Amino acid sequence: SQQGEEDPQALSIQEGENATMNCSYKTSINNLQWYRQNSGRGLVHLILIRSNEREKHSGRLRVTLDTSKKSSSLLITASRAADTASYFCATDAGGGSEKLVFGKGTKLTVNP
Amino acid sequence: GAVVSQHPSRVICKSGTSVKIECRSLDFQATTMFWYRQFPKQSLMLMATSNEGSKATYEQGVEKDKFLINHASLTLSTLTVTSAHPEDSSFYICSAPDWDRGGSPLHFGNGTRLTVT
Q: CB–CB of B32 and A103 under 8 A?
């Protein structure tokens, strides 16, 4: 499988600081997505970046994609305590099925 | 926006019993639904793809007779954990693409925490 790998596995920062999470994957992709999961809850979609895009912004989120290195990063700027959650990258398996393969996730803790 | 409703959010059952989890798309037709399983502090692992009107497609290593999936309508898919055992305790999450809106991103239910005693 082309399960992504996020690093770090856990990240603890102070409110106001930036948080950077990285994701690597193994095979060719159509797009890469980042999701957020609060403890014990479902996933919330944050941002989708297509394979022909290199960078995308959404509010305080910035995602980069390097298909040559098969890696992506998620940057959260000016973090808030409410950003505390687990963040997962997910890649599509291709073929138009929308079947996603998730990485292991980064648990982000933002301390007030 | 599109919403997927998953029920129940939490269930405790005794070993040997069966548990049914429902996943409904509330404002779109979900011809496809995905069922994931998540162990504590781990990632989501795809169990099966549920297809309306046809048999589900199971991922390698997932027991079809253990995890029964039924997708009888365009808005409802169910996952039944049969003869549950403590090792089936996990967090189960469904998701569905809204094909009328291009399929991506997927819409996720809020998950079901299953505890088998």
A: no
Distance from CA of B78 to the nearest CA of A (A): 17
Backbone angles phi, psi at B88, to 5 degrees: -85, -10
Measured distance CA(B37)–CA(B65) in Å, rounded: 16
Q: Which of A96, A91, A108 is nearest to A19 (CA)?
A: A108
The answer to whether the CB of B94 falls within 8 A of the CB of B36 is: yes
Mean pLDDT in consecutive groups of 10 residues from the start of chain B, 117 residues: 87 97 93 92 90 91 94 93 96 90 83 96
The amino acid present at A104, given as its one-letter code, is K
CA distance A94 to B36: 18
DSSP, collapsed to helix, strand or coil, labels residue A81 as: helix
Which residue does chain A place closest to B48, by CA atoms?
A: A99
Q: Which of A92, A94, A77, A93 is nearest to A35 (CA)?
A: A92
Q: Which residue of A has its CA nearest to B42?
A: A104
Please provide the size of chain B in residues: 117
Alpha-carbon distance A38 to A30, whole Å? 27
